């Protein structure tokens, strides 16, 4: 199995505060990592570092053997925890715009996902509800056959209907054998069946790491139970 | 191709306000045309010239805004996650800035010349021949002014984008960092180019007598044939229009450097 992601002693400091302090991680093709931790634990920072949205203070990142930069970004699809789409764009324009930058964008998959998520292609982003806008963001990510998919709180602030659609979208369109995925969340229950591995972060440091099944067996409970035990 | 896609996005985003400003400007110019002969002589032309200065000020402010807009609406997450080079990002923003303000300056300049000629024509005291000679000079003046104006506009765009990229990099004391990174490169390039100009060889100074550049002899001839004895060329004796190639080269290299530095910063240092 080829390594898609290698983090070595990864550190990030904002001013005097360490948001991430010495993370080591290796992920191979087809693995799904649950990145768990409370707010401010460094989950988003870690994903932003991998996606090249922020720059490391120390350590190294390799994505498909590349340092973060324009070349590595072609391998990464990130769903940030922010409404980043241009409000004036229609769904069709947003798909057309984003797809133009990626060779791995699958238009048929995008059409299928748009239908499945119940999104109106003529609608402009600024007129969408929070749930619908999250679903559109997910369409733009999952329609790519990216080597590494990063989802930052994909279920945050979403109503149960949209939540189900998002989970179904991820499960149905994820290339289980070929893509690697990191899902950062503190809403563990709904999404934990997807995890192969889990990394618990606390104050920027990894406090627990292992295979999802192995951890469930070791702690005799679900990942959500372990999450509560570690952080509460 | 990335540049083209980014430019198209900028254009699609700004096209409505761009078109609206063009229509409003046309409306104002039409109104000013209707004021010729009703307002004091020269007032419509002066108002049109003031509008050009207004657009220059707007261009200065807007040069910061092109990147600021991305951060204001969280679009930087998308922009910085794309597999594109920094020079494509800065280049597309600069190209749209030039499209928008270059068009406005070109059109406003042309309207102003037309307004001035219409004002000269309105009292019906000049012959057709004199008017034709004046038109030629006025359009030559427009041609001579527009190229440096577009170059200055380009420079303002580059420095504005550079200054805002520096504020995004430094993050703290935004206003002061932005102001310093706007003023310092201009001061440095002005200083350096004026020193270079003093020592540059003669062949790098290109000068044309103003009377020749503006074809003022045509006006003289036309006026003199109408019975007057006027020597405009004589009055402007010693007035030249010209450029120093060394100085232009310094500015061009400096602006290219700032463009590349801004591109490098956005690719390697700027964060969401």
What can you tell me about this protein's structure?
With 232 residues, chain A is α/β, with parallel strands linked by helices. Chain A has helices spanning 43-51, 70-73, 91-99, 107-116, 130-142, 160-173, 212-219, 223-231; strands at residues 3-14, 17-28, 32-36, 58-63, 76-79, 148-152, 180-185, 197-202, 205-211. In chain A, strands 5-6-7-3-8-9 form a six-stranded mixed beta sheet, sandwiched between helices. A three-stranded antiparallel beta sheet of chain A has the order 2-1-4, covered by helices on one side. In chain A, a hairpin with a 2-residue loop joins strand 1 (3-14) and strand 2 (17-28). Chain B is mostly helical and 272 residues long. In chain B, 80% of the residues lie in helices and 4% in strands. Chain B has ten helices and two strands; from the N terminus they run ααααααβαααβα. In chain B, helix 2 packs antiparallel against helix 4 (86-121) and helix 4 (86-121) packs across helix 10 (245-268). Chain A binds chain B through residues 48, 51-55, 69-74, 76, 78, 80, 82-89, 93, 97-98, 100-102, and chain B through 1-2, 5, 9, 12-13, 73-78, 80-85, 267-269, 271-272.
Structural class of chain A: alpha/beta
Largest sheet of chain A: 6 strands, mixed
Number of strands of chain A: 9
Strand content range of chain A: 25-35%
User: Considering DSSP H and I runs of 4 or more, what fraction of the residues of chain A is helical?
Assistant: 25-40%
- What is the strand content of chain B? under 5%
Order of helices and strands of chain B: HHHHHHEHHHEH
pLDDT averaged residue by residue of chain B: 92
Q: Record the strand order, biggest sheet of chain B.
A: 1-2
The end-to-end distance of chain A, rounded to whole angstroms, is 36 Å
SSE sequence of chain A, one letter per element:
EEEHEHEHHHEHEEEHH
Using only CA atoms, what is the Rg of chain B? 23 Å
SSE layout and pairing:
The complex is a heterodimer of chains A (232) and B (272).
Chain A: E1 3-14, E2 17-28, E3 32-36, H1 43-51, E4 58-63, H2 70-73, E5 76-79, H3 91-99, H4 107-116, H5 130-142, E6 148-152, H6 160-173, E7 180-185, E8 197-202, E9 205-211, H7 212-219, H8 223-231
Parallel strand pairs in A: 3-7, 3-8, 5-6, 6-7
Antiparallel strand pairs in A: 1-2, 1-4, 8-9
Helix pairs in contact in A: 4-5, 5-6
Chain B: H1 2-35, H2 43-72, H3 76-81, H4 86-121, H5 128-170, H6 174-199, E1 205-209, H7 210-213, H8 216-225, H9 232-235, E2 240-244, H10 245-268
